[in-house]
Write a structure and sequence with these properties.
By secondary structure, this protein is of the alpha/beta class. It is about 50% helix and about 10% strand. The protein has two domains: about 40-180, 3-Layer(aba) Sandwich (Rossmann fold), CATH 3.40.50.1980; about 185-299, Rossmann fold. It has ten helices and eight strands. The strands form two sheets. It has a four-stranded parallel beta sheet, sandwiched between helices. The chain has a four-stranded parallel beta sheet with strand order 6-5-7-8, sandwiched between helices.
C-alpha cells in the first residue's frame, strides 16, 4: 500500500513539473514571437521640436522611452557636437527621428549613413520656406501625424494609446490654428529670421526688409546697413527678432535701436528644451499675441 502511494505521489509530481515546464516554454515562445510585450521601446530624436512631439505622443505609454541627443545645447542645434555617448544612444535606439530640412547639420557625416533615420518633415507641403518648418502650425500638425504613424509602425502593440494621444494633441493645435487664422493685415514688418516668412506667407503681414544670418545669429555688416536703410526708407515701424538673437546678439539690438525708429518684437522659435508638454501650444499662443500687438503698433 505504501509503495502504491509513493508511485501515485511520484506521478502527481511529474505531472505538476510537466505542466510548469509547458507553461514556461509557452510563455518563452510567445514573448520571443511578440517583441511588443514587456520590452522597452526606445526612441531617439535629434532636435527639440521633434522631441516635444514624441513626448506628447508617448505620454502614459508604459515601457516607451525617448531621449533628445542635442538636449544639452539648448536652443542652438548648430552648436551641437555628436559624442561617443550619443553614438551608443543611436546604436541602441529602436527608432531615430529627425526634423529634417538639413537643420541637423551633424547628420551630414558619412557615419550616419549606417542608421535608418526617419525624416519627420518629408512629404510635407510648404516646407521650402524655411528650415524651421515647425513654425508653421499646419506643418507641425503634419509632423505630429507622420511621427505618430512611424511610431505605430514600429510599436503596433500600443497603437491605441498613440492614436488617442495624437488626436488629443492635434485637437489643441487645430484650436490654436483657428486663432492664428484670424490674424491678418497689410502691415510692413522687417524680419531677422527666415522662420518668420511662414507668417508672411499666411498673409499676416508684408515683409518690408530682411536680415538673414549666414549662420544662426552671425550677420554681415553690409547686410545690416542695407537692412537699416530699408527699414527707414519704407517707414517700417516693426522688427521681428527671434528670442535667441534677442538674448545673444546685443550689438545688433543696440544698432537697430540707435539707427531706426522701429520697435523690436520678440518671437519664440520654441527650441529651448523644457519638461512642459504644452510648450508648443503656449509659446505659439504667445507668438500670436506678439504678432497682434506688432501689427497694431505698425499700422
Amino acid at each position: 500500500m505504501i509503495k502504491y502511494k509513493k508511485i501515485i505521489l511520484s506521478v502527481v509530481i511529474l505531472i505538476v513539473i510537466s505542466i510548469i515546464l509547458i507553461v514556461a516554454v509557452n510563455n518563452f515562445l510567445n514573448n520571443s514571437n511578440n517583441k511588443d510585450i514587456n520590452v522597452d521601446f526606445d526612441i531617439v530624436t535629434t532636435f527639440y521640436p521633434v522631441q516635444l512631439i514624441v513626448n506628447n505622443l508617448i505620454q502614459n505609454v508604459n515601457g516607451v522611452n525617448s531621449v533628445n541627443v542635442s538636449q544639452n545645447v539648448g536652443g542652438c542645434i548648430h552648436e551641437y557636437e555628436f559624442t561617443s555617448k550619443d553614438m551608443k544612444t543611436f546604436e541602441e535606439a529602436d527608432l531615430i527621428i529627425k526634423n529634417g530640412q538639413s537643420i541637423e547639420e551633424f547628420l551630414d557625416k558619412e557615419y550616419f549613413d549606417n542608421f535608418e533615420i526617419f525624416d519627420s518633415s518629408s512629404n510635407i507641403p510648404n516646407v521650402n520656406v524655411s528650415k524651421h518648418c515647425w513654425m508653421n502650425i499646419d506643418n507641425y500638425i503634419s509632423q505630429v501625424m507622420l511621427i505618430s504613424e512611424k511610431i505605430i509602425e514600429n510599436d503596433p502593440f500600443n497603437q491605441n494609446m498613440y492614436y488617442d494621444n495624437m488626436d488629443s494633441y492635434i485637437s489643441k493645435l487645430l484650436a490654436l490654428k483657428q486663432e492664428y487664422n484670424n490674424v491678418s493685415s497689410q502691415t510692413n514688418i522687417a524680419i531677422t529670421n527666415d522662420a518668420f516668412k511662414y507668417f508672411a506667407n499666411d498673409g499676416i503681414f508684408n515683409i518690408s526688409a530682411e536680415l538673414l544670418s549666414i549662420h544662426e545669429g552671425n550677420y554681415v555688416a553690409s547686410d545690416i546697413a542695407s537692412f537699416i536703410d530699408k527699414i527707414n526708407t519704407t517707414n517700417t515701424k516693426v522688427i521681428l527678432i527671434d528670442s535667441e538673437t534677442n538674448k545673444e546678439n546685443v550689438a545688433l539690438i543696440e544698432m537697430l535701436n540707435s539707427n531706426t525708429d522701429a520697435r523690436i518684437f520678440v518671437i519664440d522659435l520654441i527650441v529651448e528644451p523644457t519638461d512642459n508638454l504644452n510648450q508648443y501650444i503656449e509659446s505659439m499662443q504667445n507668438n500670436i499675441n506678439v504678432l497682434k500687438e506688432a501689427i497694431e503698433y505698425g499700422k
